[in-house]
Every structure is written in structure tokens, then in C-alpha cells.
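Section 3.1: Structural characterization of target chains.
Under the original work plan, the team committed to producing a structural model for every single-chain target entering the pipeline before any wet-lab resources were allocated. The record below documents one such target. The sequence was received from the expression subgroup and is listed exactly as submitted; it comprises 411 residues.
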Amino acid sequence: MKKWHLRAVRGIALAAGMVGLLWAATPASANSINTYINNQGYATPKITTQIWSGFPKNSYRYGKPEGVVVHETANPNSTIYNEIAYMKNNYQNAFVHTFIDAGNIINVANTKYLCWGSGYYGNQRYVQFEQVEVHSKSGFANELNKSAYYTAYILNKYGLKPKRNTTVLSHHDVSNNLGGTDHTDPDGYWKTNAKAYFGTTYTMTDFMSLVNTQYAKITGNSNNSGNTTDDSNQHTSAKPKTVKYYAGTNNETATLANNYTNWTVYNHVKGTAKARKIGWGNLSADYRGAKVYVDSRGVKQGGWSGTWYRIRFAKNSSYKYWVCSNVLNFPNVTYKDASGTKTLNTTSNSALYNHVLNSDYLSTVTAHTQDFQAGQTIKLNKKGVKSSDNSTWYRGTIGSKSYWVKSTNLQ
């Protein structure tokens, strides 16, 4: 079981002073673990909220979190549920906001309030989560993916951007940079599993790259504009030809048209510097009507036109191909204007999106209903009815931000 009392989190300094206090859309690094994770086609991780009322509610030094601290439990023989139960029984010594393993992200302490996990100085500043030790290649990759997603999710939730040693730190970083604690996790745990299952190393630099990738998916890109630009041809003409890319992070699907072979398949968007023709003959199958998974949309800009999609033929396949929009059939969505207001159903942690889920725009999760307080209203401006399941969706604004939400999550 986690030795929570070993954390330098309260002590004399905490007892004396705590009461009142109480980016770029870059691909993951070349580290082979990140490459493996990126090739798995993971669905957007789900955050399970199980807030326990017994934790103290003390404020951060500036009223809200300034970043995220990554821990690991240092217990090879425990489970996520055992760790949570033990922490509740020993929270007077230490506690964190969230636990993560290969299959779960479980938030047990409200991130609006500080926790006691990384010493006096770290506690005043950061949301903190524990990785439970896992013991397989797929388990380790899943856990890292969920950890990076949760880190990016918290940063976005509190209006922060990923920045090493500023908004994203390991417990070891806190020990080195802020003091008040002397722990070095998760360095040893990452090193051991990276060597055992991948024959490589894994550091906070590698993790930051994974966080940047997840942050780009959540926000659309590093500057929240919803796209990134491939400027490979920008210096070849007065009016540069570019491609804007939009991520789809929900394992969305489409079917191949019966006449799909009228257009060929490429390794990248046709016309870009990276593109080369693959040809359907090299894939050696009849794919008429086949279901494919779609994870990216590229829209040509500046003197050329067309929309392209990146597809794969199995959910977890590492083989990905680019096809033009004529090749794919998406569920049809009929749009019309809407007006009025509705109230979010915040009793279940349902996702909000930047587009209708599984439409030809593709979608990313931009928030969850439980991010908002009970009674939160959304001002409607668009309605979409999806043909595949006859579901109704609404687009609306909360403050200055726009969201798509399924009608079943509105009251």
C-alpha cells in the first residue's frame, strides 16, 4: 500500500502556514513509447468523478491551480481502488486529486481545492494525480496516454498551456525546484517499465511531448484556433497553398463508397510535399462499403481546394491512409438555425464537442457537463439531426465559448 505518511506534505511548515492558504500542436517525440501510443488509436479517455466529501477544502495561493504534478504510488502490489480507499483513511497525512491506471481516471478530490501531495510549496499551486503501478506493455502505454490526457484536460480547464517545470512538473521537479519535499517519482517507475516493456527510456521530456499532443487534440491546436497549418508550399507562390488540419479524436467512422477506386489513396494529402500515391491495388482487397476509422481532416487552402481524410481499416491499426472526401460516406447531418436556452444535465459526466460527433467535420471533446455548476444554461444557435441514429444535437454558447451537445444531455 502507498506509504502516504512518507510524503513531506504537512509537517511544521504546513501546520503553521497552510490553514489560511488552505501549446504547439506538435507530434509526440521520437521516443518509441510515444510512437506506440500514437499508433494505437485510443478513444478519448473518460474521467470518472467520485468526489469524496471528507477531504478538506482549502484554497490555492492565487485561488486556482497553476498546473499539474505527476506522481506514482511506489507500490507494485496495489490496485487503484485499494489506493483510493487507503488514502481516504489516511488523508490527514496526504492525499491527491486523482488516480490513474491502465483502465481508469478516477477523480476523488475536487480540483477547485488544493491537496496535500507534494509539500508546502507544491500543494499551494498544483492539481496532483497518482499513477498506480501497472505490469504490462499495453497497461503502461494506456496509463501514460490517460495521464497525458488528464494533464492536458486540467491545463485547458484552468486556462493554462503546457510548459515544462512551470505548468507541468513531476514530483521530482517539485523537490528540485520548489523544495518542501524530497521525492523523485515518477522517474524510477517510468525507467523500469520503459526498459522492461519497450527497451528504452522514458522521461518528463517524453511525457511533455505526449501532453502537447493531447492538448492539441483537446483545444484544436496550441493557440485554440482549432487547426494547424502545413506550410510546406508557402514559399512557392505569392498566394501560398496550405492545408489546415482538424483532429478527430473519438474513433469516428465512415464507409467507403462503392466507386471508391475512382480516386486513389495516398500516404498524405495529395499535392503536399510529403504525399506519394499508394494506390488501392497495393492494399489487395475489395473495400466497397467497408467501415473505416477516421482521425484527421485536411482542408486545402490558398489557390487549391478539396477536403481529405486520414483513415485506417482497424481501430488499433498503425497503418493510416489519406483519401479525398468523395471516397467516404459519413452519417448525414441536417442543420438548421436554433434559438433559446437550455440547461446542461450536470449529473452525468457527458462530453461536449466542437462538432457533431461522427459527422464529416470530425470532432474533439472540448469539455464535460460536470465542468459546469448545476443549473448552467447554454444559449442555442444551431440544431443538427443525424440520420444514422436520428439523434438531435445543439450548438450553443456558454460565455464566449461554443459547444455541440447531444439533446439527451440538455434539460
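The longest helix spans residues 137-157.
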